[in-house]
Amino acid sequence: MKHYEEGAVWYDLVSTGLPGDVSFYVKEAKKTKGRVLELACGTGRIYLDLLKAKVDAYGADLSSDMLKILKQKAKAAELRPKVKLADMRTFDYPNKFDLIIIPYNSFLHLETREDQKKCLMNVRKHLKKGGRLILGIFDPRIDYLSKVDRKTETSVLDKKSGKRMKMENFSHYDFFNQHIYSFHRLINPPRGLPREKIEFTCTYIFPREFMNMLELCGFRKWKIYGGFDYEPYIKHGQNLVWIAYK
User: Fold this and answer.
1) Are 84 and 114 in contact (CB under 8 A)?
2) 103/141 Cα distance (integer angstroms)
3) Which CATH class is domain 3-139+205-245?
4) Which of 103, 98, 96, 125 lies closest to 39 in space, CA to CA?
């Protein structure tokens, strides 16, 4: 998961989130009326909105560079973040939480089943009785996976310079390990952004697999939605939202 450290400088540029995800997590956090923990809080795209909504929110991330950017944003917005450097597999807090969230596919950067189970069991350990885990992961699309290698080109906007840039993307699918190896390169970026290729690995998990994993890790029940408007999961390729209860 070292790509988080390497990619902090361009993370906000290319990782703009999913439509409706911020308002969804803020709504669920305010509904909780208790302590909330965001794992893999990154540069604060969601976490800072939790603070703005007066949520008693804590954050943890594996990247010191990501947290440095988060703290700079918080200072500019006159917010007081409660974040620390921690791994989602081994994080440790003295108190338990009413809600723990892992947004934006961050769980999928755990590359082995063992690491995924460690994370889920640690989350359960840190939840109060009746507490919830809300986790967002994509539903694997068979038509994408069947192509083995996929190359695309997208456009991204640098808000600081106002410059729109092209970005090359290449993905390779490892069916046996259920890994996606991705490579990204900005074309003619402005000064201060990396010119070299950025690469990372994530896993993909099918819904039935994840149900079994939740049960194995001690969660008593769960709900699955096909998006951030609580729409039903009815087709492949939706952005899935899981709500699991201790």
Assistant:
1) no
2) 19
3) alpha beta
4) 103
Burial of residue 110 (CB within 10 Å: 0-12, 13-18, 19+) is: buried
pTM, rounded to two decimals = 0.92
Vertex 52 angle, CA 49 and 57, to 5°: 75
Give the residue extent of every domain in the chain.
3-139+205-245, 142-203
Nearest to 41 by CA among 71, 75, 2: 71
Pick out the chain residues at pLDDT < 50.
1-4
CB half-sphere exposure, 79, CA atoms < 13 A: 23
